[in-house]
Fold:
Amino acid sequence: MLLDHIVLRNFRNYTDCEINFTKPVILIIGGNAQGKTSLLEAIYFLCTAESHRATHDAELIRHHESGFYLKGILRNGSDDVTSLEATKRVRGQFKLKKNGVLQTKRSEWIGQFNAVLFSPESLTLVKGSPSERRRFLDLLISQIDTEYLKSLQEYNFVLKQRNELLKQIRATLANPAQLDAWDKLLLMHGTAVIIKRLEIFHQLRNHAIQNHHKLTGGSENIALTYRSASVPDDTLTHNIENSNLENFSTNILTDPALVSQKTTCEDKVIKYFGVSLNGSREADLQRGTTLVGPHRDDFLIELENEPQPSPPHNYHDDRASDPLGHETETFREVARSYGSQGQQRTIALALKLAELELIRHLTGRNPIVLLDDVTSELDDNRIGYLLEVLQDLSAQTFITATDAEPLVNHLNQPSVLKVENAQISSTTETIENS
Ligand SMILES: Nc1ncnc2c1ncn2[C@@H]1O[C@H](COP(=O)(O)OP(=O)(O)O)[C@@H](O)[C@H]1O
Ligand SMILES: [Mg+2]
Structure:
């Protein structure tokens, strides 16, 4: 997939800017606060209908203007050309148009045009809260599977209703028996979310581990584990007969409509999730919120070390604290707490490359790659590896930096754009910038 052309009007610090892109690798060079990240943000927004850094949509509108307009011309092969337009008024919803036709739902937009962005904020994947990692997984899966975002939206809707009801019951304004109906819906949509998360997470894990191994020259290994109060990481592969689910029969789970028609895999997840939901009902009622479910899940990132006779006390001993009691040979450190900044950056990069490979593998399309300020994030070796991988994939790649020097040696004939105060100039590209 290639972005041939982009238009930005009143987007961030851009007033009116049109650029044609003619080469697969585009270097965007400029000083601080000139508009480099904003240009990548516009491309990312066109592909995902989401900004990677704005907390409120209105931040994207140029100060004192009434709305922004973005347009991109994307090409998949030589004939398949699509025009994408996004507009937002100060007090209005986003409007997204594909080939001039209004798209009503974000779930229909997302997944048609893929983008992967690596920026200094990507470090929050390792260092940030569980919600960052859930967001990463959710956005990745949404780009691959159009049904996923719908299941997630339905799950979130039901979750909101259930939480409302929990508060009402706590205030004795409603009856606890009313929860059963919401629990069935929560199990149904939550199960779809969990299964897809586990499926994609396990594939992502394989890619990330391989990338990490290559990035560190084999000197370090990571372990990734899906962390959930409802389902074990290996739910999809292990046999449920071996697991401890004797207290399985609850009023929700014996409903034949919910369980009997399901495949083994769905059946397993429904049972696990059902048991945990049921077990947490008292606590949910006390807290007035739902404490288990995919909205609380996370994945654990650990650095693996060789077995040591007496591990230092700050090491995480996997055998002692693994809630599922799996025996492991190695000791692991939680990357979020103990990894150095450099190790954390490498893990974030390994995850992002895994995201890219997985999108490519599962959709058959190359996502657009956006690398924001990588030279401030990674050393020369890692940049070399990253750019080598990207050029091997021939994915269209936009790279921002304050200085082209550390990058040009690694790149094969990039086009170089200069950004100064939201004005873009180049000797290699056609620019119409007013
Ligand atoms: N909504 C907005 N309207 C006008 N200017 C903005 C808006 N949002 C951000 N800016 C400014 O745009 C400039 C460019 O930001 P950015 O693209 O992040 O720069 P950089 O080149 O360092 O990546 C900054 O000076 C920032 O303050
Ligand atoms: Mg920037």
Summary: Residues 2-114+365-433 form a domain with the Rossmann fold fold (CATH 3.40.50.300). The two ends are 28 Å apart (CA to CA).
